[in-house]
Design goal:
With 152 residues, the chain is of the alpha/beta class. The protein has one domain (3-151): HybD-like (Rossmann fold). It is 32% helix and 21% strand. It has helices at 18-29, 44-49, 92-101, 129-132, 135-151, and strands at 3-8, 34-38, 54-61, 71-74, 108-116. It has a five-stranded mixed β-sheet with strand order 2-1-3-5-4. α1 (18-29) crosses α5 (135-151).
Length: 152
């Protein structure tokens, strides 16, 4: 089975880039899967995920369900709560439905992980100290969940 972990975010908006940062860390924990990062949104993502059997997404979340650095696993029924659901494009689950409607083979979604970043988004190439301090525990939590899902 060909598996992709896709980290998403904006590399110049500090905590908004947490999906990129964590995906790179996951590559060390999960060497048997492909890892890619992107700042793209909308239809451009189709090119990145086609050819995979299963995809796991990691991105910043502004769902405000928990404190900064907390991880929530989202399903397709939770439309619009992840930051990756762009206001100027299709959200990820709509994108998959669109790809299928066009006749493309779309991967199964193994998990969509939202990492809460709070309201403040500032310019910067680094995570804020509060999020950077939680990066290791975030990585361990997501890697453990992915390993469980791939084994089951």
């Amino acid at each position: 089975m060909k598996v992709l972990i896709l980290g998403m975010g904006n590399p110049i908006l500090s905590d908004d880039g947490v999906g990129l940062f964590i995906a790179r860390k996951l590559q060390k924990s999960l060497p048997a899967v492909d890892v890619s990062t992107t700042a793209m949104a909308g239809l451009d993502i189709l090119d990145l995920i086609m050819g995979y059997d299963q995809v796991f997404l990691v991105d910043a979340s502004i769902a405000k369900r928990s404190g900064p650095g907390e991880v929530t696993r989202f399903g397709p029924e939770e439309n619009g709560v992840l930051h990756l659901f762009s206001s100027h494009g299709l959200n990820f689950f709509e994108l998959l439905r669109f790809g299928k409607a066009l006749g493309y083979e779309m991967p199964e979604v193994g998990g969509v992980y939202g990492i809460e970043i709070g309201d403040e988004i500032c310019f910067g190439h680094q995570l804020t100290p509060r999020l950077k301090a939680k990066a290791e525990s975030i990585t361990i939590k997501i890697a453990g969940d992915i390993k469980t899902r791939l084994a089951g």
